[in-house]
Amino acid sequence: MTEGVGGAHRSQAAHREQQTAAEHKAPGGPDGEPADMLHLGETAIEVRRRLGIDRGLSDDALMSSLDVIARQADRRARWRAAFDSPLGNWLSGRGSDLNTALNTIISLLPPRRF
Questions:
Q1: What does the DSSP assignment read for 8-20?
Q2: Structure-model confidence comparison of residues 106 and 30, the more confident one
Q3: What is the spatial distance between Cα 62 and Cα 86, in angstroms, rounded to a whole number?
Q4: How far is Cα of residue 98 from the mean position of the Cα atoms in its chain?
Q5: How far apart are CA 51 and CA 91, in angstroms?
Q6: How far apart are CA 12 and CA 35, in angstroms?
Q7: Across 40-50, average pLDDT
Q8: DSSP annotation of 34
Q9: Which residues make Cβ contacts (< 8 Å) with residue 109, sequence separation at least 6?
Q10: d(Cα 51, Cα 105) in Å, to the nearest integer?
Q11: Is 66 in contact with 40 (CB distance < 8 Å)?
């Protein structure tokens, strides 16, 4: 018995969902980067876009800041780490609403993995 068009579509969709789930659980991405770094890289792009961060803050400084922030166990510790980070210092020097910016960053980060 053959699957109808709808059945084939559902099967393909299920396969894509499984593949996507496997990619998120994989220890590394396609370039051998750790999976967490891929997520932080995506977050860094969004942080730059939402907060209007130009190249005055290097990619390395942004990524290291996000890495330190993401490693914190709770929201308060993440806020404090963001405040003390090169990213927080850059935002403070720009004269923007620091509290709102730090809370935006924290909301964009994935939850801490144990």
A1: HHHHHHHHHHHHH
A2: 106
A3: 7
A4: 20
A5: 9
A6: 25
A7: 92
A8: B
A9: 43, 66, 69, 70, 78
A10: 9
A11: yes
Residues in CB range of 37: below 8 A, 6 or more apart? 29, 63
The predicted model scores a pTM of 0.66
pLDDT single digits (tens) 70-83: 999 999 999 999 99
Q: Do you know the residue count of the chain?
A: 114
Q: Which amino acid belongs to residue 71?
A: R
Bridge partner residues of 34 (DSSP):
28
- Other beta carbons within 10 Å of 63: 16
Tell me the pLDDT band of 12, cut-offs 50, 70 and 90.
low
Q: What are phi and psi of 28, to 5 degrees?
A: -150, 165
